[in-house]
Amino acid sequence: MKSVIFTLFSLFCFIKVSAQCYPVFRPMSKQPLIPTSGYWNTDNISSQHNQFCVVNVKTGGFNGIEDTMIIDLWNDTGWLTLAPLNSNTTLYGEIMKSNDQIFLKGRFTQFNNIIAPLYYHYTLLQYKGGIWDTVPGCLDPINSIWIDSKYECTNHGIYKMRTSRNLFLAKNYIEHFDPSKNKFDTICSYENIDNMSDPYILGGTDRLLIADIDSINSMPTNGFAYIDTSTIYTNNDTSNSQYALYTIDPKDDHIYTIIFKGYNPLIHEYDKQLIKTTQTTSFPQGTFGMMDVYDGAFMFFGTDINFDPTFGILCKNETKWKSFSDNQAKKPLKLTKRGFFYYDDTTKKAMILTDGAAIQGLAYLDLDSNCMHDSLTEPLAKGQLIKAISSSNNIFTAQTNNKGEYEIYVTPDTYTISGPFNRRACGYDTLQLHAAGNSASKDIPMKSPGYHDLNVRLLSSHITRWNDKSTITGLFENLGEPFDSAHFEFNIDGKLSGITSSNSNIKSINGNTISGQLYNVDYFEKRYVTLKAWVDTATTKPDTTVCSNLTGYIFTSEKDSTDNSDAVCQQVVYSFDPNHKTCDKSTIPVNTATKLEYFIEFQNEGNDDAYDVVITDQISPLLNLESFEVIGASHPYSYNIKNGLLTITFKGIYLKPKKVDDAMSKGFFKYAITTKGNLTNQTRINNTAYIYFDLNKPVITNTAVVLVSDGSNSTVGKLLSETDKLIVYPNPVNNALHITCSSATEAIIYNLEGKILATILMQNSEGTIDMSTWAKGIYIVRCGTDYQKIIKGE
């Protein structure tokens, strides 16, 4: 993966796209009872990292006590309704659960038939034997020098933090409740020199975090300490800021600190020591509210200007925050040992944060049209693209595996599910699905085509390197009934020589004519044949064009014989970035819907295998999304189109590094799309791709430019839109580079290490620099806030 100084490219920092990370709230599979008449829902009561609860409160209760609290406790598989708690205090309370012990922390001057002594209140209650009772040592003065005691729990019991506002009168302690003694024992003292900050404790599964303190038992902490069972550990890492936020992950007890360094948060992850540092690439919403982490995923909760809940979510192993609002979630989010929850006051439903829905199923040929798969007689649809199209016209796809199975990850919506070519089966084309649950199932029975049809395509880039090998790949796809054999023939441009192929289907190489045979091609099957040809330097000069074609046919009549041949023309260049995007056309006519073919090629130039590759490509609004068509790809893939953003995911691609295996380090994706039919003269269609290798920052391709022309303009300058801020041409460049820039008075050229190599003063927004003596390679041109990548040839 390319090492680029991306501080230059903050404008281009797109989101790292994950095919499966679509955080959404969904109703829990089991719900608490709907409140009876006279009850209303107050805040969900739940201690951080512990049990999730819903409380119903009936005002004007009985026995002279004002309110009756009905508490529903979630026990992972169902709801447990606890005995009513009658209290005349403010409705403050949070449930804690340590193993089988249930506690409620709050401020209670009276509950059920128990009244606290005058000027005192109970701060912790325990649920024992079906009733609520007090806990020894948890009776605090209502007005005292002590801040209200803080309680947290782990699997090792209840912990209590007592913090003094007056450092001269009392010390600060951490205490642990010993059930055998029925009392709290002091286990350590701590100091907080900055008396303005508020120390706190958070309970994980087996670890207690003590945050925002300066020392514990006179040992410096660098912000925090923690207790595992009964052993105290201090933080030895000095990189924490005094402005850090602290939290603990109940999944693995890892401690996180978040530092708002500049604008985007810096995250430190600790176990026994610092194990990971993550610099996020955006700012979360809701940062003025609650913050928590679960299984490596972060959540900030706050409210927007309309006081609707706003969530900032950082998915596991990602650097870009996702943000969304939910105007139904009127109560704060709660984190427990099982994830993120809240209670929806409007629908009276408990909600849990999960990944987007998975739509799963089996695709097969339903030869007898009975809508049931017969595994003995009905073949599976292998390697086929299944689409889920939402009511808002977003498209999600996945390919079937060798068992005909597919799985598509989607966001909540109503979907139409369809198989390849929308083939009918059982009287319908599609099925409406609502992705409100964690998953939905839909098998795709496809009708037998009933005809023969061979589709032939050339999968090659539109550029090739001079004095190098050119790769030409033919794709043969069966769109109809199976056939026994098919004949094919490549006719390679005479400027190419030294043609070779290791494919066993090749039967003859006669000069630049290569022929072969395909045998026993099944339903929907795809076959690939790849050739290598040398760009002959004796007969071919840079900037020339080489064109090749491919023809295939089967020995029976076909439904459509117009798709039996394809051709591709390649521009010969000195050099080009191996991560690039090209289009088969550079100019198109005005007011005419024109089909364009885009080719995105990528190569792993790093030091290790790339396990996953994701490409994002914002489709121009000048193109018709409904005409989008995948032509082919180098590896199994899935794609989705949401709000015009095309995302292609190669999961488990395992690209080798270029220096290890050049051939196995490359991949590509090719698609076709048609322009809108009302484009006027001098319109520009720009497309740029962003290529993500695993969790690395994106490699940004060149911008593929298509110009709409009436044929009357002959110069590049006249064809370029006057609204463009930065234009560079030719690209690749050998001699003079011409720059058009309307946003600044000078243009700057950098190398990939960020070093300034030249500054060009603009005169009437135009500038030129002679690059004939520059070394070949990739450079960056900057004008104001706009950037362009250029390639210098020989």
Throw out a few tags for this protein.
1% helix; eight-stranded antiparallel beta sheet; 51% strand; 794 residues; ten-stranded mixed beta sheet; elongated; 1 helix; disordered N terminus; mainly beta
- Outline, from the CA principal axes? elongated
Q: Total strand count, please?
A: 67
Profile the largest sheet: 10 strands, mixed
Structural class: mainly beta
Total helical elements: 1
- How do the strands of the widest beta sheet line up side by side? 38-37-34-35-56-57-54-59-60-52
Report the end-to-end length measured between terminal Cα atoms: 24 Å
Mean pLDDT: 81
The assembly state of the depicted protein chains is: single chain
Radius of gyration: 33 Å
Helical content stands at under 10%
| Percent of residues in β-strands | over 45%
Low-pLDDT segments:
1-20, 713-723
Describe the fold and architecture.
By secondary structure, the chain is mainly beta. It has one helix and 67 strands. Strands 38-37-34-35-56-57-54-59-60-52 form a ten-stranded mixed beta sheet, with no helix packed on it. The longest helix is centred in the last third of the chain and has 4 residues, at 716-719. The chain is elongated and about 100 Å long. The chain starts with 23 loop residues before the first strand and ends with a strand.
Map the helices and strands.
Layout: E1 24-27, E2 39-41, E3 53-59, E4 67-74, E5 79-81, E6 85-87, E7 93-98, E8 101-108, E9 110-111, E10 114-115, E11 120-128, E12 131-134, E13 139-141, E14 150-154, E15 157-162, E16 172-178, E17 183-191, E18 200-203, E19 207-216, E20 219-228, E21 231-234, E22 245-248, E23 255-259, E24 266-270, E25 274-279, E26 290-294, E27 297-303, E28 309-314, E29 322-325, E30 334-336, E31 339-344, E32 349-354, E33 357-365, E34 385-390, E35 395-399, E36 405-410, E37 414-418, E38 431-434, E39 439-441, E40 444-446, E41 454-459, E42 463-465, E43 469-478, E44 483-491, E45 496-500, E46 506-510, E47 513-521, E48 526-535, E49 545-554, E50 565-573, E51 580-583, E52 587-588, E53 595-603, E54 613-618, E55 623-633, E56 638-642, E57 645-650, E58 666-675, E59 684-693, E60 699-708, H1 716-719, E61 726-729, E62 736-741, E63 746-750, E64 756-761, E65 766-770, E66 777-783, E67 786-792
